[in-house]
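re: ur msg from earlier - yeah i can do the magnesium ion complex, just paste it... oh wait u already did. ok heres what im feeding in:
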Amino acid sequence: MKIVNGSVNVCSPGRNFVTLKIETDEGIYGLGDGTLNGRELSVVSYLVEYVIPCLIGRDPFETEDIWQYLYRGAYWRRGPVTMAAIAAVDVALWDIKGKALNTPVYNLLGGKSRNGVMVYAHANGVDLGQTVESAEQLIERGYLAVRAQSGIPGLASAYGVAQDGQTYEPAQKGLPAESAWSTEKYLRHVPMLFARLRDRFGDDVHLLHDCHHRLTPIEAARLGRDLEPYRLFWMEDPTPAEQQEGYLQIREHTTTPIAVGEVFNTVWDAEMLIRKQWIDYIRMSIVHAGGITHLKKVADFADIYHVRTGCHGATDLSPVTMAASLHFGLAAHNFGIQEHMPHTAETDEVFPHQYSFKEGYMHPGDEPGLGVDLNEELAAKHPYQRAYLPISRKLDGTLSDW
Ligand code: GCO
Ligand code: MG
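and the outut:
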C-alpha cells in the first residue's frame, strides 16, 4: 500500500479544527487532528508546504520510520506546531493501519486492558452554589469524576467558568480578551469549593481541579495542603513547568496528587518530572505530543515510575483526537483518567464517530481504525474564523499566565 494524497481540512463548527486526510492507492484513508487552539493555520502551512510532499509514495504501515523522518529529519525539533503536524500524520496512519487490518486501533496498541475509559467532566459556575449544582447534574448523568472550577468573589471572570449561562469555550473571535487575576483571592476561595462538594456528594465521587499554571510552586504547595482534607483525584497544572524542579517544591509539601502536561510536546518536557516522581499523572495529549507513536513511549516510560496518564481532552481537541485518546486509554496499562468536555452538536455532526459514554466510562467502539469520520460537505458550511485564547493580567496590570 502507498500514500497517494494528503489534504488538510479547516472548519469551524462552533470552534476551529484542523484535520489531515491521508489517502492510499488501495482506497483506504485515515484522519489525523492537527488543531492548535488560536494558532491553527501555522500547522496547516507546516503540513501543506513541508510534510505532505514527503509522504507521497510512502508505505503507511511505517509509522515509526515516518515519525522519525518528520522529527529528526526536519533538524528543527519539538514545539507545538511541529509536534501537532507530526501527530496529525501519525494518527492518520494508525487509522489506515486499523482499517487495512480490519481491527480497531486499540488492538494494535496491546489490546484492551480494561472494559472502558473513565472520564471526568467539567462542573463550573459563577459562585459556589452554581458550581455545586453543575456538579450535581454531571453526577446525575453518570460521571464518576468531576473537575470543579468556580467564579471568585472580586474577580469579573475566572478560568473554566462559563459566562451568561453559555457552555464554557475559552477561544474567542476578535483580538484576545483580557481578564483580571488575583492569586490571593483564588487561594482563599478554592478550598471552600471543595469543602462544599465533599459535604454535598460524600467520598465516592472523584474530584479534580485545574490551576491552569497560575501559581508559584510555594503557592501551589499551600493550595495542595489546604485541599488535602478533600482528597482530590488531582490538582492540575499548579505551576508552569518549563523549570521542572518547581514541582519538587510542591511535592515536598503536599500529598495532593499532581497532574501536568497539556502544553508539553515531547517526553523531554516531562523527563525529570516523571523520573523523579514529582507528578502522579502525565496529561500530554495525542495531538500536541506527536501522536500515538510518541505518547505510547511517554506512557511506557511513565509506567516505570508509577505515573499514570490523564490525557487532555478539551473541546479544542477534535473528535479525531478524542477517538485516538480512547483507543489509547483502553489499551495503556498505566491509564489514569481521560478528560471529557463534550463537543457541540454541530461538531459531532461534522465528525460522525463511534465512541460513546455510559455510566462514567467511554468506549471507542469496535470499528476498524479509529471509528471517526469527517463529513467534508458539512464541514464546508463552517468556514475558519480566527480566534484567540484570552490574556490574563494581575490587578496592577502585570501580564500573568492565563
Ligand atoms: C483543560 C485545559 C483547557 C485549555 C484549552 C486551551 O484542562 O481542559 O486547561 O481548558 O485551557 O484546551 O486551548
Ligand atoms: Mg488544563
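cool cool. The chain has two domains: 3-103, 108-369. ping me if u need the other ligands too
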